[in-house]
Amino acid sequence: MPSGLVALFDDVAAIARVAAASLDDIGAAAARAGTKTAGVVIDDAAVTPSYVTGFSPARELPMIARIARGSIFNKMVILLPIAVLLGQFAPFLIPIILILGGLFLCYEAAEKVLELFHVDETNVHDAPALIEGEERENEMVASAIRTDLILSAEIMAIALAEVADSIWWQQALVLALIGLVITVVVYGAVALIVKMDDVGLHLAQENEGLIASFGRGLVAFMPKLLTTISIIGTLAMAWVGGGLLVHNIAVLGWHEPEHWIEAVTLPLVGMAPASWAGFVEWLVFAILSGVFGVAIGSVIAPIAHKLLHGKDQSKKEEAA
Fold first, then answer.
1. Alpha helices of 163-208 — where are they, by DSSP H?
2. Half-sphere exposure (Cβ direction) of 243: Cα atoms closer than 13 Å
3. pTM
4. Helix, strand or coil, per DSSP, at residue 167
5. What is the DSSP letter of 129?
6. Is 168 within 8 Å of 87 (Cβ atoms)?
């Protein structure tokens, strides 16, 4: 009897070790996959504040909370089951989905670059919400959740590619972990960003001296922060989108872009000190992938804008 009990404890300990190793593997896989989604995450954080612009400060946090709940629903209820089924039964589609996601990111990055240099101004942007009310709020929240669905689909596809060889329950845990963490980080950051100017205004109005100066500085700093986030998001989208294209078109058999990048990267890595070689390799790949991504997106963006502009013009003519 004692020997049987000892054997049982040994079995329990062995199972615990296997479970701990599995959790470590899941955590490591989630960390690797999470870093690959950086461009989409930054873009999400940069885009979302625009959906609450123009509403009263009292409605900003409730709107962000509603968008965050919609984002959780998008990831956990809609995208997670689809991603797990895809990983188990149609993994051959993953490179194609990642290419489509890469093209979308490249389009978004190039769109911002072209607008910055006034090369293409055919895109029609929605004006910030200036009319408050429940109907307008519901409209903006629904629009934000639809945009989140697209960005979340890219996040889940990128993450799925990192755990494509895992069994289904590990894939599900990794994707769920990434989805939850990213949602909390993104919408927590968005809530902080949109309320900082209100905090600064309160400090400036209710205090004097250094505290008031700090409040005024905070109000002046927030537009610069949003601009910086937008720039970082554009660079990240170009890098991630271009990288997705380079890697996955190589998987499908077109290796020329990958070879071109390697031809430029290897000599530069060879000239770098050994301790810097890894960083130089990553940096050069990121820059060249970004250039490739913007080049591809610069072809797509004007065509897409003209098609959308043409549809909008037709609707206006029909309405007239």
1. 168-206
2. 19
3. 0.69
4. coil
5. P
6. yes
